[in-house]
Every structure is written in structure tokens, then in C-alpha cells.
Write a structure and sequence with these properties.
The chain has 125 residues and is an all-alpha fold. It is built from four helices and no strands. The protein has one domain.
Length: 125
């Protein structure tokens, strides 16, 4: 007497194909931000505002300083004294860029310190 054949089919993917399937699926599954990722993002964001403000001030002050130098060197007969004043204003602006960065960074650290301390406490447990 013959054994009855089963009407089923089974196929399994290789490990490499399984990984590829998981990578594709991960692109479409909504991601939840884990605590360490949020901590890293908050820490990086603390200096971002200060950096942008200081760079903006520094670049603008350098351009003002350059204009003052141009006034002194090119139009010295008429613009020498105003060029010196404009150049000094540019130097002052460039010097104030770093204190501006420090000030904004301190304010941002104070603003997010509670959240960062809470996350670090949770992660260290």
C-alpha cells in the first residue's frame, strides 16, 4: 500500500535573503526614537544655535572689516577716517562672535538639561 502524498509546499529563504527582506521592511515600518538616539540628538542640538549665530556674526563682521579696509586703501583721500571706523566695527563684531556662541550655548544647555539628565538617569539604570 502506497503512502498518500502531502499537498503542501515549503520554502525558506537563505540567510542573505532574510537580511535583505528585513532591511527593505525596516524602510517602511515607522521608527520609534530610542532614548539613546534622543539623548544624542539633544546633545548635538545644544551647540547648533550658538554655532549658527556666531558664524553669521563672524562672517558679517569680516565683510564689514573688509569694506573698511577697502575704504582706507582704495578711497583714502575721502574715506580714510570712515574706513578706519568701519574696520574697527568689523573687528569688534568678529571679537564678539565667540562670546555670543558661549552665551547661546549656556542658555541652550540650561534649557535642555532637565531632559538630558532624565534620559541619562533612565539609561544608566
Amino acid at each position: 500500500m502506497a503512502q498518500p502524498e502531502k499537498d503542501s509546499f515549503s520554502y525558506s529563504y537563505s540567510a542573505k535573503e532574510q537580511e535583505e527582506i528585513k532591511e527593505i521592511r525596516a524602510k517602511y515600518v515607522p521608527k520609534e526614537e530610542d532614548k539613546l538616539e534622543r539623548l544624542r540628538r539633544l546633545d548635538a542640538g545644544v551647540t547648533r544655535k550658538g554655532t549658527i549665530a556666531a558664524l553669521t556674526l563672524g562672517i558679517a563682521a569680516t565683510l564689514v572689516f573688509g569694506f573698511g579696509m577697502c575704504c582706507v586703501l582704495v578711497w583714502a583721500d575721502r574715506w580714510f577716517i570712515p574706513g578706519v571706523v568701519i574696520g574697527i566695527l568689523g573687528i569688534v563684531g568678529a571679537v564678539l562672535a565667540y562670546p555670543l556662541y558661549v552665551h547661546i550655548t549656556k542658555k541652550e544647555r540650561a534649557r535642555v538639561s532637565g531632559e538630558i539628565l532624565r534620559l541619562t538617569q533612565e539609561l544608566l539604570k
